[in-house]
Amino acid sequence: MSKDKAPRLSPIQQIKQFIQNEQVILSSLAVIIGVAAGLAAMAFRHFIDLVQMFFYGFQGEKVSAGIAGLPWWQIVLVPVVGGGIVGLFIRYFLPDGKPQSVPHVIEATALKGGRMSLSIGIRAAIASAFSIGVGASVGREGPVVHLGASIGAWLSKRLHLGYSLFRTLLGCGVAAAIATSFNAPIAGVFFALEVVVGHYALSAFAPIVIASVVGTIISRIYYGDFPAFILPKAMSLSSFWEFPAFALLGIISALAAIAFMWAIIFAEDTFKKLNVPVWVRPMVGGLALGVMALVFPQVLGVGYEATDAALSELYPLWLLLALIVVKTIATAISLGSGFSGGVFSPSIFLGAMVGGAYGIIATSIFPELSSGTGAYTVIGMGAVAGAVLGAPVSTILMIFELTNDYALTIAVMIATSLASVITQQVHGRSFFMWQLERRGVEIRGGREASLMRSITISHMVHNEVSTVETTANLNHVREKIRKTRLGQVFVVDEDEHFKGSISFIELADGLDLQEEKGVALTALDIARTKAVQLEENSNIEQALQAHGASGEVYIPVIDEEGILKGVLHEHDVALAYKKAMEQARAEERGDM
User: Fold this and answer.
1) Whole-number Å distance between alpha carbons of 468 and 500
2) What does the pLDDT look like over 438-447, one tens digit per residue?
3) Which of 220, 296, 403, 480 lies 20 to 30 angstroms, CA to CA, from 89?
4) Using only C-alpha atoms, what is the Rg of the chain?
5) How distant is the alpha carbon of residue 368 from its chain centre?
6) How far apart are CA 250 and CA 529, in angstroms?
7) Which of these, 167, 151, 162, 101, lies nearest to 447 by C-alpha position?
């Protein structure tokens, strides 16, 4: 007997079914987010120009050339006044009175279901744009990533989407923001997947590609089809015998990246010790920055002017070496004192100076084998930035889009991979992960761990438990245990506060001791008063650890005041863990 064939859909029904398809909807939303994030990235850059025009009288990225004709007191005073304004703004308009950047996007993705506030995103962008406008030595890409992610998260929240779609649209905002900033759509895609989304499933890949391409289109319509950095001439490898030199540059870049990250953390700790209000710290940092700028104006702002100069081989060796040191100090002071901004641009700057200095030395030793100082500058940019950001793949792709040179990209791959591996082994984490750890945020374990931490045990607590008062005699305890299915009773005081637990083992030992000593014992006398317990707001991860450490089948659960609320069975915890793992796998496959 043949089975009935499914009814043939009419063209209108087929169109309707196509329009209602989740991937079609997601792709349409990716276009919207790509446009919004691209325009937001452009608005961010315009706001930087407005602030810069107001304080310095010029706009654009050529800061060191622009301040050449300014009086010394203006160069020193602007970062100080600007620091005070930034400090007050962050103090009163941002959560916890602290700047926001890429680590908050990673935290939102891993632990908060992708939830971010658009209002906070806009305020954080204002703080960062103002910081850069007054000369803080910080990057503009981190704030733009945060702003793009906030836009994606806002739209997801308005549409009441699930976590998987939430995370994908957040990644769309990040990709579009990066693509607009660098005119590098491939790098935008892989930065979003590598740093934010955390997987490369097709369900997330396609929408993020669309958003990144849309952001690139917006950038090229407005700015033209120009890369973020200007390469004065075509670059290519002179000889494959240079590869050992590229590997050595990767090692040196790792040392520069580690020193850069340690300097920022050291500056943060130092400024925290200053006996001044938090909002005054950027003023102190601004003063140090202004004084440094009198000698090395290249340290002000994002530093792309100096990066382009290094690519054009315009700086002598002594200046390249000096800028490595002063830029590291300037960025450490800026971020450590409380200015808002990212580390992408500073790490690109440092990489250019490290690569340029290395290239001059290598070329002087083996001139016939050298590909030129400019090639080493490009390689250093990728190596240092990849190691600092913990994003070697997207950094390599960004350099490839910048140079469009396959052979040179292989050299970048060698140096960046080595730098990233060494940094990971020595330092243990990227700069973003380090910032999160210093705030007490644990991302370890990826989405599985974050799911376990996000699910509390309160709904799994069994409230039907047998309790006895602390003064109950052992005969009463024995009757209670005989009637309970748990095989144990829990001791509470007159206010229901948990005091311990009694199983058949404790009861038997107590009866023997009572008979031996000839004295009447109470429930509290024989209870395990140091029994493992959990608070009702504990998560699955904590419950698994408690069951594993204690070996108990049932663990008592208390509230914040220590009142017994019930017990947690290990079977329920194991089942919740299994569901969390299945959910994480389904999200990565795009089934949710």
Assistant:
1) 10
2) 877 766 555 5
3) 296
4) 30
5) 43
6) 57
7) 167
